[in-house]
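As a warm-up, study this chain.
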Amino acid sequence: MVSRLSTTPDITDAVIRAGLQNTWWPLRFEIQRRKNAPSVILDAAHNVDSAHALTATLRESGYQPDNLTLIFAASADKDVQGMLQTFLPFFSTVILTRFVGNPRSVPPDQLSELASHSGNARDCRILIAQDPTTALALADRQTPEGGTICATGSLFLASEVRRLLTPDSPFSTEDK
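Now compare it with the structure written out below.
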């Protein structure tokens, strides 16, 4: 697609770059800033490649593991173990949950079992919440002042947490 755009006389590399910089893609490193509560990064990373991309973006953006809390849920048909192996070393607190809007969600106790066998976890705390509402409340309590929450592992989870944060306007955000 980009190679086709570059052959169009009126579309220069600078125009393409500007367009990409001004693109807003919901649930892709979408930051929800909240008053008197940690900011929440919503990301629909749902496979190992997108998990690597998210952790790379977090690292490049200056986020530090000691200030990051992960809310994680995944579909049963995904490489859950691979995603956990990618995410666990980068977060100080991990809250395993399930999304409620789709029956393919892996139960939190199974996620916990997979996490315990990841062999890749640093010294992170692993907690369980039975639903996204409980997970977000727990993350608010567990995240250090100035820290950030990241909800990822599935489009379903990211969208359910988004609805909790912006119930009246599912497509509004402060960081367009």
